[in-house]
């Protein structure tokens, strides 16, 4: 860890230039010739990226950033805070500590946090930053987490792990066994040290693939931020053999949309209906969950088609996703399209439809944008239709 950048003039320079063009700054003469210019520029770039993602770090003095990639790969504060709200206890060990954002929030719910990070430099940076952030209940190990666990006789309330994909796994189907550490292989070892494990994975992991590699899964959490799925969490409890709950959260600026159901519950029988007054499009976390029949059953709204994943009702309900009022439903035919949408402006979405948004726009000369929303989809009678809507939420 290079502490030369902590001098007051350099810190003021970094703060003053956050948000500035790095390529333009790089052409300037280094105002601090005794300190590596690239190092200073990297701090400016990383701090710029932290402004929206890590506002607590951004607004705290004398924070050291490890580089823009670490900032890009870390959890955002909003997802970390939500994640920390899910578990609590006396002790937690983070086997893949990284930049420490998750542990900052876990530290609020646990008496003691153990941060393992194989990179000595990154471990030192996080330790320094936690002093600035006034976190006093965290112990740091700059070592391989498997070694730390092996050398310790302690048993933790929780193990948290965010395995990273191996470089040689590119192009393959994403599986947990292709990550480091190899959680499926190490799970029995982990249960010698804890009875509860929380595994964070990238959103592209297929839920059924994760379940095929893991045992004792109790809950699967799907976390989206502003309708973009950011991470999956597999919550595992030693020897658990009950049913698995899927819990989704879409974190928005003013609220968090939540939805949950039991995986494999055969009591859900969705109802189908032709378009009614309102149209509902589930948020991305629900779409990732695959709980499409459950949406119909739990919210008591009708599906348009088995594979369309759009819903309709005559009564307006509070719904975790986008809600529209259907102003007109037309068949997807040359005459109807020419009358209603040719050379018009509209936001186009396709669900269970044979053509792409790009081709539809080109074919009917539909300009993007405006206040009209058009859903090209298939109804319960297998007819291709277009729903012309006005957005409510």
From TrEMBL:
Any one GO molecular-function label of the UniProt entry: methyltransferase activity
Domain of life: Bacteria
THUMP-like domain boundaries: 321-391
Domain PG-1098 ferredoxin-like residues, every copy: 278-320
UniProt-listed InterPro entries: PG_1098_Fer, SAM-dependent_MTases_sf, Thump-like
Alphabetical GO biological process terms: methylation
Keywords linked to the UniProt accession: Methyltransferase, Transferase
Name of this chain's protein: Class I SAM-dependent methyltransferase
């Amino acid at each position: 860890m290079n502490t030369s950048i902590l001098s007051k003039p350099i810190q003021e320079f970094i703060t003053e230039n956050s948000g500035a063009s790095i390529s333009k700054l790089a052409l300037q003469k280094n105002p601090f010739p005794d300190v590596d210019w690239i190092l200073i520029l990297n701090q400016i770039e990383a701090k710029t990226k932290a402004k929206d993602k890590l506002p607590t770090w951004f607004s705290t003095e004398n924070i050291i950033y490890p580089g823009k990639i670490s900032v890009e790969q870390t959890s955002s504060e909003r997802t970390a805070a939500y994640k920390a709200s899910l578990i609590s206890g006396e002790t937690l060990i983070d086997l893949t500590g990284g930049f420490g954002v998750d542990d900052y929030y876990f530290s609020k719910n646990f008496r003691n946090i153990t941060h393992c990070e194989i990179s000595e430099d990154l471990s030192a940076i996080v330790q320094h930053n936690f002093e600035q952030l006034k976190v006093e209940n965290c112990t740091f190990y700059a070592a391989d987490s498997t070694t730390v666990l092996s050398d310790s006789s302690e048993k933790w309330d929780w193990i948290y792990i965010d395995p990273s994909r191996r470089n040689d796994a590119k192009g393959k189907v994403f599986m947990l066994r292709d990550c480091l550490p190899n959680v499926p292989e190490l799970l029995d070892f982990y249960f010698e040290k804890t009875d509860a494990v929380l595994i964070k994975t990238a959103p592209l992991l297929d839920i059924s693939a994760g379940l095929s590699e893991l045992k004792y899964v109790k809950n699967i959490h799907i976390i989206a931020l502003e309708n973009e799925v950011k991470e999956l969490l597999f919550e595992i409890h030693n020897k658990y053999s009950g049913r698995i709950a899927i819990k989704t959260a879409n974190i928005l600026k003013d609220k968090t949309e939540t939805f949950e159901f039991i995986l494999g519950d055969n009591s859900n029988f969705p109802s189908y209906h032709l378009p009614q007054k309102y149209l509902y499009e589930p948020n991305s976390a629900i779409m990732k969950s695959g709980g499409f029949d459950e949406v119909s059953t739990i919210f008591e709204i009708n599906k348009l088609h088995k594979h369309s994943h759009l819903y309709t009702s005559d009564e307006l309900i509070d719904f975790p996703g986008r809600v529209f009022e259907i102003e007109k439903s037309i068949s997807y035919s040359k005459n109807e399209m020419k009358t209603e949408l040719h050379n018009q402006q509209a936001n186009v979405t396709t669900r269970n439809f044979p053509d792409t948004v790009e081709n539809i726009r080109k074919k009917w000369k539909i300009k993007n944008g405006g206040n009209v929303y058009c859903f090209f989809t298939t109804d319960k009678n297998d007819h291709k239709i277009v729903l012309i809507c006005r957005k409510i939420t």
